[in-house]
Amino acid sequence: MAAPESDGIRPWADLPVEMVDAIVQQLDLFSTTRLASVCTSWSTAVATNAALPFGTPCLLMTGEEEDDNGARGDDHEDWSYQLMNLTTERGDSFPALIRDVQEQWWVGGKDDWLAVVDRYGGARLLNPYTGRQIDLPRTPAAVGPGVTNTGLGFDRIVVCATPSDDEGYLVIGMVNDYLLAIARGRDDGWTELRNPDGHPAGGYKDAVVHKGKVFAVDKSGSIYAWDLQGGACPEPEKLEPPHIDRGEFEHEGWKLAESADRRRLLLVWTYGKMVNCRRFKVYGCFDYLEFVAEGARLCERDVDAAAGLSDGDAGWSPVSSLGDHSLFLGANYPFFARVGNQGTSDSDSVWGMVRPNCICFAKGHLFQSQDVDVEVFDLDAEEYQYNPYKLILSNSRHYSSYQEPIWFRPTLKNYDLE
């Protein structure tokens, strides 16, 4: 440790690591990142703190401090959420303070950025570390018959490329399930992607960008592609889906992703059954049908090599293992992450544990009323398709505060803080 300065005041950089750790225990995770930007020694102390989940997939979600009526106690601009690390035995939780998100809801995210909307038609990209916000164009005008043109018309905003220094970004807006539109940095508005002829309303379930094209999957599992490199919006190309033996199961939750090396397109789907459910309200109850997932499958396709295949040969191959990685899907842009091989004790089995070789789903549509927010399907488990791990059970649907859980990997960088 350096000697004290002549005036008897020790420089902040000379604080012992133990004292920095004590400060970290009083901070939320995003503030800890700001603490690390103060000086090299503090950054080292934060980076070497094994308790912090930097680089680990966590669920960013509503905090647990709601009162009995579901109302948040916060009446200021900084709202507290939580990051839950489900790779540990007990599901460690860390507070996460995000600035300027009152009456806004996240509907997408990638890397260090979230896509948020408000009830008045506003949409923007938000960096929870720095507080920086970038306004997106307002909701496309043609949102369909009988649909109000507000920000909540966005079911999702797929963040494909995050902002750079010149505010460059690429996002896909999914509006009420049947309209796709893209926006890039400095665009004045959204560019709507043409629907294929005869495409039914309410069809799109997910979208990604792969090899310069937008790929979208609809509720039947059919996939469409739009080439972004030609300038004007082209007619979509249809890709034949893989043959799926539906048997006794129904299919829902179609998702798209890229392989870890970005060379192949992945199609992921859950399967299960529609079951009768009953929901109780203040003035009675009602019955409804709800899809209950029992398993997940995925397959891959090299879209370049399969371009010349006939309709009868779709070029898809099943994927049976992800190795020591897991795939994280939901409102976030899909990503692979290597996770530790954590054991599970009986007392912790309720958490399900995110382990290697899992498909991890977080429900990614705003204000949908599923009781199960997050499910994990372990590809290594014997007959895993009958035993998905249901991690987060939530009955809270208070629009003023509730946020759908989204996968988020906290990082440690030297941010230019505002």
Count of separate DSSP helical elements: 3
Largest sheet, in brief, is: 5 strands, mixed
The H/E string reads HHHEEEEEEEEEEEEEEEEEEEEEEEEE
Based on CA atoms alone, the radius of gyration comes out at 23 Å
Tell me the structural class.
Answer: mainly beta
So what's the overall shape?
Answer: globular
pLDDT below 50 for ≥5 consecutive residues: which ranges?
1-6, 66-77, 142-151, 342-352, 383-387, 395-399
Give the strand order, joined by hyphens, for the main sheet.
Answer: 21-20-22-23-24
Proportion of β residues? 35-45%
Number of strands: 25
What is the mean pLDDT? Answer: 76
Termini separation comes to 31 Å
In percent, how helical is the residue content? under 10%
InterPro entries: F-box-like_dom_sf, F-box_BR-signaling, F-box_dom, KIB1-4_b-propeller, WD40/YVTN_repeat-like_dom_sf
Domain KIB1-4 beta-propeller: 100-378
Protein name: F-box domain-containing protein
Pfam family, one: Beta-prop_KIB1-4
Task: Walk me through the structure.
The chain is mainly β and 418 residues long. It has a domain at 1-52. The protein is 6% helix and 38% strand. It contains three helices and 25 strands. The strands form six sheets. A five-stranded mixed sheet has the order 21-20-22-23-24, with no helix packed on it. Strands 3-2-1-25 form a four-stranded antiparallel sheet. β16 and β17 form a beta hairpin. α1 (17-24) packs across α3 (40-47). The two termini are 31 Å apart. 36% of the residues are buried. This is F-box domain-containing protein.
